[in-house]
Amino acid sequence: MARYEDRDRDGGTYNQDPSAGSGSGGGGGTGGGYDKRGGGGGGGGGGGGERDGPYNRGRPLHRRPVTDYGASVGKWMMKRRMNWRGQNIDFLRPAPGFIVDLLPPAAYLENPASSLPTKHIHASLNKIKHPINVVKWTPEGRRLLTGSSSGEFTLWNGMGFNFETIMQAHDCAIRVCQYSHSGDWLLSGDQDGTVKYWQPNFNNVKVLDAHKEPIRDLSFSPTDAKFVTASDDGTLKIWNFNEGVEERALTGHGWDVKSVDWHPTKGLIVSGSKDHLVKLWDPRTSRCLTTLHGHKNTISRSLFQPTRGDLLATCARDQTCRIFDLRAMKDFCVLRGHEKDISTLAWHPIHPALISTGGSDGALNHYLLDESPQGVNASHTSSTIIHPAASIPFAHEYAIWSMEYHPLGHILCSGSNDRITRFWTRPRPGELDGFRDRHHIGDEAAAAMGTYDRRGRRNRQEEEEEEQDEADALVDQKMPLPGQQPQGIPGFPNMPNMPGLVPPLPMGGAVPGLGDLSSTLAGLFNTGKLPPPPPPPPHLQGGPGGGGGGPPPPPLPVVGGAIPPGFFEPLHPHQISAFP
């Protein structure tokens, strides 16, 4: 049976032809899957075969959220050689017919706006949901690694976004993950201050007790021979990677250090702290080179520009992101547009002027640094205020903790406190529906426009699960705690709760099926078939030295001035005769 699929390729051709099938001939061989006649190519002289079985045109095709960059990269490799010979790359027009001509972001270096990831393509959730603290693409871009507050590593497919595997990496929340520049090693830090070494196959080879407080960030040196860690204990530590020993400690911040980054090509370290300061360090002498001021609240992220290395981006909880020029040691851009604190940022790996920020309210903004506001000359101002080139105000429901671009630059991944990992890509030519979804205009407006089905199957399932969780929580709250007695005794209304109160059997009564229990036990004791019972404790024995008997039993509850039916006034311990 032929396999039909609708592959949403980023920049490549995709097939929706239902007649694509398989065929065989001669010496066998399957037909081409993209031939409308179902004809087979390939070995054995095959071809000309029809599709297997009738096609049900009444059943819609299932769209698979697959982003395959192979076709666009292959087309770009051919056109790149043509461009080298003097021919220009075709101009991309905003029409669906030009989807097949869409190339990777590296082909549009002069047009970074074409790589703005504003289209939501998939949301990945674990079966047991936890906040996502870290998202990290593998060096080759085939998979995405996420670290959660439960200490678990989860791997997602980088093209189909489906779940691949999960493992328990740490005993507490994972705070940071970082691949080496060579791609041969992975470092992870957790809430307990532990750093772990991982191989590409996720084999743990070393564990370091780096700090006594949570590790907030870490970064590799350009040669991968060293790495630096930042912690809530207010210090940064430089470690020898091969030996796993501490070489230097950078002290100078007056509060928790929230971020750190090592320059991609230079011996320069940047750190951001809760004391509102951004510091630049010399890793060879442990000396603070300079302190950058400008933010008015906790620094949440600080990253060097990965492509050129001339710029430094910092974001803070003062709702701003600042771009510093390392050659002038001053900020020349202030990025505004967030209504709440900015929790993270990410540089584009291809376009040096494209940067994305995530807020504590779940908003996601994209900025183009080479576009100045209208009517403002950037050369005449000390720092230019730049507003978002594209904004996604409802990207997540809660704070975005981590973001990272795919190595090719066509996909942006974001992890949030709402326990969801979302994938964003650039819209295809002529595609405008993505700007009218619920992530851009909200649930209510999208439902009114028909771009969001509030009662869809998946949404209904999520709402039913939430209602069931709420019902279970209410039932658990109504259940008595261990050792707690019910509020009343069945058959006796308005009976106050008295822990330990159990209505005794009527005196002289017999247990059903056992006859007279007292005479039976007395006979067993007399014949020696049962050992005699131990004497009562001294404080319950009568006479001198015994305390004159134990305390009287608690009084029975009185309902309407009379003892309830079935209750008898208990005897005093002196009046209870022991068994012979």
Protein architecture, described:
By secondary structure, the protein is mainly beta. Among the domains are: 70-107; 112-369 and 382-448, YVTN repeat-like/Quinoprotein amine dehydrogenase (Methylamine Dehydrogenase, Chain H), CATH 2.130.10.10. The protein is 10% helix and 29% strand. It has helices at residues 70-84, 438-441, 443-449, 457-478, 517-527; strands spanning 6-7, 63-64, 119-124, 132-137, 143-148, 152-157, 163-168, 174-179, 186-190, 194-198, 204-209, 215-220, 226-231, 235-240, 245-251, 257-262, 269-273, 278-282, 287-292, 299-304, 311-316, 321-325, 330-335, 342-347, 354-359, 364-368, 384-386, 390-392, 400-405, 411-416, 421-425. The strands form eight sheets. A five-stranded mixed sheet has the order 20-21-22-23-27, with no helix packed on it. It has a four-stranded antiparallel sheet with strand order 3-31-30-29, with no helix packed on it. The protein has a four-stranded antiparallel sheet with strand order 4-5-6-7, with no helix packed on it. A hairpin with a 6-residue loop joins β16 (257-262) and β17. The protein is globular and about 110 Å long.
Kindly summarize this structure in a few lines.
The chain is mainly β and 580 residues long. Helix content is 10%, strand content 29%. It has helices spanning 70-84, 438-441, 443-449, 457-478, 517-527, and strands at 6-7, 63-64, 119-124, 132-137, 143-148, 152-157, 163-168, 174-179, 186-190, 194-198, 204-209, 215-220, 226-231, 235-240, 245-251, 257-262, 269-273, 278-282, 287-292, 299-304, 311-316, 321-325, 330-335, 342-347, 354-359, 364-368, 384-386, 390-392, 400-405, 411-416, 421-425.
